Amino acid sequence: MNISTALRGSTALVTGATSGIGKAVAQGLARLGAEVVLHGRDQARGEALVKEIAAEGGTARFVAADLTDAEDTLHLASQAGDVDILVSNAGLYQFTPTPATDAASFDRQIAVNTRAPFLLVGALAPGMVQRGQGSIVLVGSSAARMPAPVGAAYGASKAGVEILTRYWATEFGPSGVRVNAVSPGPVHTEGTSAMLGEHTAVLDKTNARGRAGDPSEIADIVSFLVSPASSYVNGSILFADGGELSALPN
């Protein structure tokens, strides 16, 4: 089977699609023939990506939404319409010690990282079930398994993503809807560059691979997970961390 046409005729919603991993995922799915609904908060960046994808021969449209707001999240689902593929990628992180993390920051990270995918799946999965097919990919993080002195709220929100993946695979799998997750380790993105500044090189020293990942490498995994090539993969959490978790004791 030629995977370059594997997604032709399907519609995919990608959250957090205007930068980093989400942008690479959206471009990858468009290249495979999917019509992509791009989500983000910045209208200008969203429309610019629509034009980039169109210039490559793909099809995309943009829907703005604030995923910290439950009503806006559900509005995004209604605007996306009948989707065959959901990639819940949007993420919010604040790597601070617990005493320095206030309730509002904790709530925002849980809202975007855990509640938003919960609401989107609740709104979109029934249509997939009715049609008897669909693929959902959640983007987690190695932070759910790799404790650090800071970022407990973020780690907790991403641990929730792993639990949701397993529950939903059980809930929707018998109806033909597959649910999987990819959990990246450190990846060079605009976000990590903004957070670390001139210290971004530290990301290249965290795993056995000796380098951080590229967004395109995560996008390739997502493309596999939503394609017919992974038709027997359900409820899996695929770690793309360059071997970061291999340093943990069994």
From TrEMBL:
Superkingdom per UniProt: Bacteria
Matches recorded under SUPFAM superfamilies: NAD(P)-binding Rossmann-fold domains (SSF51735)
InterPro entries documented for this protein: NAD(P)-bd_dom_sf, SDR_fam
Alphabetical keyword list: Oxidoreductase
A Pfam entry, by short name: adh_short_C2
PANTHER family attached to this UniProt entry: OXIDOREDUCTASE, SHORT-CHAIN DEHYDROGENASE/REDUCTASE FAMILY (AFU_ORTHOLOGUE AFUA_5G02870), SHORT-CHAIN DEHYDROGENASE_REDUCTASE FAMILY PROTEIN
Family in the record: Belongs to the short-chain dehydrogenases/reductases (SDR) family.
Protein name: SDR family oxidoreductase
Species, as recorded: Actinomadura alba
